TrEMBL record:
This is Uncharacterized protein. One of its GO terms (molecular function) is ATP binding. Pfam families: ATPase_2. It comes from the Eukaryota.
Amino acid sequence: MQILKSFLTERPPSTGKTTLVHQILTNDKNFNPIFINCRSGQFDSPENVYNSLSRQFKTFFDKQKEYLKNLPNFEMGFKANIPDFELSSTKKEKEEITFAKVNWNFWNSYKLPQPILVIDEANRFSRLGNSLNGGQELLKSFLDWLVLNTKEQKSFHAILTSSDSFFLDWIINDLSKKEAEEYFEKHVLPRYECKELEGKFDQVCKITGTRMLIIDMYVGEYERSKGKLADRDFSVYELEYDKLYCGLNPNELHPYKSRPPLWKDDDLIKTMEAIVNAKNQGYILERELIKEIGSKQVNSLINYNFLHRRPTKRFAYDIKCLSNEAILTAMNMPSVRAMEDHLSLVSSNKK
């Protein structure tokens, strides 16, 4: 699962993430996935969300009914409280979709595997934010519902996939350092029973940054290595280092995309230099990099997940951003460390 988590987090779009998730979850009888394909439907209003989701949930519940038909002494005339959210029938009610607490009594009674919610192209939900008819409130309720059932109550797992490199702008970004340290000390270390790292977040943060998933992965790998994990052996660093190596040979990246990369190796080197030189600041201005290497090159690097674009400082919880302009950062802190090592290698090769 750690390898799957790394792959889903770090790989570029169109590299088979959705296919991998589908294959793993459907080939194991212990998993009971609900696949929601947001390519199939509209998500620009509460009513369209209702129509798009209810159609796909019906397929899932029909499958469960087929399973239950084979159970002894089971009558198909049941009235079960299966759906996790209340699907209404009238147009007015469709505009007021609500999300309820999951009730597992029915599932557990018949030993049905608890579902795993898989939402592909989840970035389509961002269109609700532009809806004037209650879309913003519905989007907030949906995200709160996911957090409640996955993180707080641990009712089920949810996997959100996207081919949109701008998806993270509206889901979650890096925590502030204070929040990340609290998460590290109060939640991650106790879970792994790792007392050795207590009070050492400043050291750990140099390789993990303040992203929850990466902090969690680092501590897990640190424990499995019995405290002998070197920064360069951290899996996220290795992924970023390998990705940058391919980026310095952009022709090798072409199979990942329908469009080839639009930058040359020198463009990526200049980008890495800009990111590393601004390491203490934490970001560079998009317009400055465009002046340096060109807008098509910058957009292509963003599209291939070598850069993370933040269109507004409202989401910059981990850095103190004084500018109201669009800013660019590395994808994560391990990527910054990998950039430093690549630049060191480039410099030594020039001598």
